[in-house]
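Objective 1.3, modelling of assemblies. Example input:
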Amino acid sequence: MNASLDSPALRGSLDALPLFIPAIPFAFVFGVVVANAGIPQWLGWSSSPIIFGGAIQVTLLTLIGEGASVAAAVSAALIVGARHMLYSVTLAPRFQHQPSWFRWVGSYVLIDQVFVLSQIKPIDDPHDFRRYFLSAGFTFWSLWMICTALGVVLGPAIPPEWRVEFAAPVLFVSLMMASSDRRDKLGAAALAMGLAYLLAAMPNRSGILVAVVVSVMTMLFAQKVRPA
Amino acid sequence: MITLAIVLTGLGSYIMRAFFIFALARYTFPPTLLRALEFVAPTVMAALVISMMTTPEGELVAGPPEALGLICAAVTAKLTGNHILSLAAGMISFWLLGWVL
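Predicted structure (tokens):
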């Protein structure tokens, strides 16, 4: 296989790298959560390969550390991760012309950053799409396995006053702008921000999902009333 | 018990990701739905940013440094399309204003 600069596999890995930087402080936050939960480090880390989703892992282990029941902790964590269902619907058309093994494997690495990359860089050729998606996904996966292991071991080594965890919202703002390549998409994003703020007190961050659904429907309705 | 919780959450989050990819594998998408799906990425990212800047009680935890950082990151992303630059602009302006204030 030739690894020229144009190869979708190489591009997928390279595109994933900058998106991973904000995940590094998050891996340390995760390490602190595992330490506070008072569970064995290896057990806390095992959630990385088993769940593979930072916010879901942090929610689950925080609640377990607080003494919540398994049912309560699991359901809260899954509500936090519910936006992945929207990713699943959104990518379903792209997965139609793919072999079934890719549906199994691709679903496993379908995280925020990989989803947005697949939306920012629409690749028409199914073979290229598959290579790009898997390469970005497993680059992210490998780095997350390593960094959460480091985070669990090194724990609270980073001084909290640096506020490195602010890198996460900064990245998501950047991804929001990159995926808003039209004015109406930017408008939808602004609407979603306002709604997410109004709904921020909903339990288990479920306001995220409501804000998204309502702003998407509003934009569709606006398109009907005043076609672009 | 903790192992059970981790495995259940892992299963659940995998099913959430895989469900529609499998369920809609042979489904013909109506154009309206395809148009709606175009808005998913920008709106989810927007809602995630706000959720990171609010407490579970719904209170905003962003001050002027956070606001400046997010604005600088957004403008840099729009102008350059480069996420590293955008991250640097956001973090540096956030740190600088936090240090000045």
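Residues 39-100 of chain B form one domain.
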